[in-house]
Structures are given as structure tokens and as C-alpha cells.
């Protein structure tokens, strides 16, 4: 099981922080058109990534049986299947092997020189081939950047989405025929939510999570300007 984490987006009233609300929002059943979903996915495609490798893939799940399977693969009681669409975010741990192609494109467009391309390729191969865990960490980081971009894009189109990282990855990979080189980064239910009242935000004080220079060093008062 992956460690549990849930994040969601929504357009709240002015002065209401983004990301607050019921942890498991319910959707109202309204379908998402292919055109609307395509626009949201296009925004995710534009997310930045290392060497522009875009080490992510998506599976769009609309069928009821498949959505119920994903819901059953989580260990918490959340209404995943109420979403018209669930996106499975995948992280490609071998995406770095396509670096030569991307570097050639950069050389062809004269963004870098041939010598710079050779040096970059040497460093990429040395870095990623040093450990499988290195490639996994980088792939997941890039996939989560794209997932967050998707959440922001969904909000622009009046949609609510949230991500879930507590699930049985083996069940998901087996059911959806996902190759071994891919990690399931997160599940993203997306749709139009039922109306609700935004709750009061509770969170950790700022200074308990931001340190100065070193871990544990409390951030001091911000100097006044002037």
C-alpha cells in the first residue's frame, strides 16, 4: 500500500483558501464532455519536466465496473465511483532512456550545441543508471507536477478533482494491464461536485513547516521594509 495522501481543488468564494473542503467530495452525476476533458489534459501536458521527458501517462476510466474496481482497491471509504471520470496517473521509470532523442531535437533547433548535448547525455545516463530508485523518484516527481497542473486546470473549467495515493498498486496494475516500468502515481477522480458549504480551514502554523537554512531552525520574523 502507498502512503495515504489526498488533495483536491475547487473554486471557492473569495478569501477562501484553495484546497479546503470535504475530504471526499461527491459528484453530481453530470458527465464531462470529451472536449472539456481534452482541454484539461492539454493543460497537464504543458507541465514542466526534466529534459522535457514528460515521464507521465494517463488512463481515462469511465466504465462503471472499472471505477468500482479502483474504489475497491483503496483502503478508505471514498466515493471514487461517483466521479464521471477517474484518471490513473502513471510515472514512467524508463523515460530517461529517451533523452538522446530529446537532446537531438534541442541540437537541431539550436537550443544547445553538439558538445553540450554530448555532455548532457553523459550526465543523464550517469545519474539515472546509478540506481533504480533514482529513476523512480524522478519519474514520480514529474508525474505529480503534471497531476497538480491537471488539478489547477480542472478548476479553470469549473471541475473538482482530488488525488488519492492510498491504494493497492498491484491490483490497479493487473486490472488495467500496466507494464512493469510504470508506477501508479495517483488516482484522480474528476467531475462536477455537489453543492456544499466551505468549512473553516485548519492547518499547521506556518513556522512549524518552514525552516531557515537548516532543518529545525525556526524561521525568524520577516524584516520590515523601509
Question: Residue share in helices?
Answer: 25-40%
Radius of gyration: 20 Å
* First-residue to last-residue Cα separation: 52 Å
From the coordinates shown, what is the CATH architecture of the domain at 6-92 and 138-208?
A: 3-Layer(aba) Sandwich
Main sheet makeup: 5 strands, antiparallel
State the total count of DSSP E strands: 5
CATH homology superfamily of the domain at 6-92 and 138-208: NADH Oxidase
Summed up, the helix count is 6
Low-confidence stretches: 1-8, 10-22
What does the average pLDDT come to?
83
Class by alpha and beta content:
alpha+beta
- Identify the strand order in the major beta sheet: 1-4-5-3-2
Strand proportion = 5-15%
Spatial shape = globular
Q: Keyphrases for this structure?
A:
226 residues, alpha+beta, NADH Oxidase, disordered N terminus
SSE layout and pairing:
Layout: E1 6-8, H1 34-45, E2 56-61, H2 64-72, E3 85-92, H3 99-108, H4 114-128, H5 132-156, E4 160-164, H6 169-175, E5 182-191
Helix pairs in contact: 1-5, 3-4
Amino acid at each position: 500500500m502507498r502512503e495515504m495522501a489526498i488533495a483536491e481543488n475547487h473554486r471557492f468564494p473569495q478569501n477562501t483558501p484553495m484546497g479546503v473542503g470535504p475530504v471526499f467530495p461527491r459528484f453530481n452525476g453530470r458527465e464531462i464532455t470529451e472536449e472539456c476533458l481534452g482541454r484539461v489534459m492539454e493543460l497537464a501536458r504543458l507541465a514542466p519536466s526534466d529534459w522535457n521527458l514528460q515521464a507521465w501517462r494517463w488512463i481515462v476510466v469511465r466504465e462503471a465496473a472499472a471505477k468500482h474496481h479502483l474504489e475497491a482497491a483503496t483502503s478508505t471509504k471514498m466515493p471514487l465511483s461517483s466521479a464521471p471520470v477517474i484518471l490513473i496517473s502513471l510515472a514512467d521509470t524508463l523515460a530517461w532512456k529517451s533523452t538522446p532523442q530529446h537532446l537531438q531535437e534541442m541540437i537541431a533547433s539550436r537550443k544547445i550545441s553538439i558538445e553540450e548535448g554530448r555532455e548532457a547525455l553523459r550526465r543523464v545516463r550517469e545519474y539515472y543508471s546509478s540506481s533504480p530508485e533514482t529513476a523512480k523518484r524522478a519519474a514520480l516527481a514529474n508525474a505529480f507536477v503534471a497531476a497538480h497542473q491537471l488539478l489547477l486546470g480542472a478548476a479553470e473549467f469549473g471541475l473538482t478533482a482530488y488525488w488519492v495515493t492510498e491504494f493497492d498498486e498491484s491490483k490497479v496494475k493487473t486490472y488495467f494491464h500496466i507494464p512493469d516500468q510504470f508506477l501508479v502515481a495517483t488516482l484522480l477522480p474528476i467531475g462536477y461536485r455537489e453543492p456544499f458549504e466551505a468549512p473553516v480551514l485548519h492547518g499547521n502554523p506556518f513556522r512549524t513547516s518552514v525552516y531557515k537554512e537548516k532543518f529545525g531552525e525556526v524561521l525568524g520574523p520577516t524584516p520590515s521594509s523601509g
